[in-house]
Amino acid sequence: MEKEHVQLKQLFQQEFSKMVAVISKIFGLQHIEIAEDIVSETFLLATETWAAKGIPPNPAAWLYTVAKQKTQYHFRRNKIFEEKVVPAIARQEETYQEAPGLDFSEQNIKDSQLQMLFAICDPAIASEAQIGLALRILCGFGIDEIAEAFLSNKETINKRLFRAKEKLRAEKVTMELPPQQEIPGRLNNVLHIIYLLFSEGYYSKTQNEILRQDLCLEALRLGIMLTEYEKTSGPKTNALLALMCFHASRFNARQTADDNFVPYEQQNQELWDAGLISQGLHFLNLSAQGNEISSYHLEARIAYWHCLKEDTPEKWEAILQLYNQLLLVNYSPSVALNRTFALYKANGWQVALPEAEKLKLENNHFYFILLGELYKNTDKSKAKSNFQKAFDLAKTQTEKQRIREKMEELN
Amino acid sequence: MKDFALLFRQPSYDYSKTSPEEMQAIGKKWADWVGGIAAQGRIANGGTRLDLQGKVLKAGGVVTDGPFVEIREILGGFIVVKADSLEDATTLAHGCPALDSGGSVEIRPIFVV
Fold this sequence. Notes:
Shape of chain A: elongated
Oligomer: heterodimer
Helix content of chain B: 25-40%
Number of strands of chain B: 5
């Protein structure tokens, strides 16, 4: 029974986004809740019916058939449609006695999901809201799960989703791909949201391992969806996919049994997923086309080097040069710190220390960890005082523990 | 913070007798030096510098295409940095590889209308 329960949950999660996307094309994004309701009702009926009669041989087809019936029902009975949609359709000089047929073909499902992805990533909506909406509508996550992923609560998430849908209405966002010339620009938004989604899973503070892996996998799935269309499948998309594959390959090695992060140097390389690494390489090769070097390209190549555990000078020199370029494309304090660490590994602490001192990232505990590392070769008391500053600034127990260990190593 | 241009000059750009290893080392020096400024968050305007492609017009109307081979032209001859003052910008200029070959760095405020 347990196994069936899990199967159903997975089935529903997969089918939720497909069905909401297809049904939303009929009713428009203004009425996205109707699509959600129809799908939820369908799942409820499925749960009840299948408990009694068993799961049908083709569960998805069963769901689609029921959804079609319910859509007809809503179309005929729902006042909103009689008041607004029917007149609008009448204006187009078409009359519908029934709802236009729902097309659950594989092609239409794919097209609808892609259109929904672009609609959700419309720049008019705040990016926080976009991730929530993407998780709900595109990935079929429940409100509870979304709340857990963001370490928030149901009310907050519901409000956020409500506001996002209001924005969709207010901005009259439609389920169509943007015009040809706008696609590259809009694709940037989509890639950014996918990247944020992946980061939520990868760096999330929630303890729920499975949830976090699901988030990463969903981000990968959405990325792969983009590669199935020529217009959205350029070098940047491939670079982002490579980046996500390389990071995801180390997922299993990053966590110990008691939920502590295992730092890179200590990871068991055998837990790194070789399959994901070669997938990443495949995408990395595809991304090496065209003239543009985006931050995704640079980050992907850095991530690739980190998938080779050997500590060669060549590796760190390559990583240093990639960070030198990345800083020009996309400065951030953490990139600056990572670059300085690579400088340390490539050129030695004597070169890296003066450069580290210039960074002056006084609010950042990682900054003081780096200074501590650099000073440990020359001035142990300065190393200690820097580690102490890092300890005071660090927020989680895990990080404080790591710093304490470094201080003890000095003795 | 204001924008300042750092313009690089060298007495000679003749690298015909420089070995590939030396060329690579020179390239690394430049990349690391610019990287050091970038790490401090002091590169202006998303790293305004010149593209690798372009054209060169010489006397007699001769026009050749990029890519360029000489270091000066790869670097674009200048970068734009952010600094509080001319003195502050001058501090950033220290360690510039142009100085290794007896060259100089000119630091010029950028005029904002």
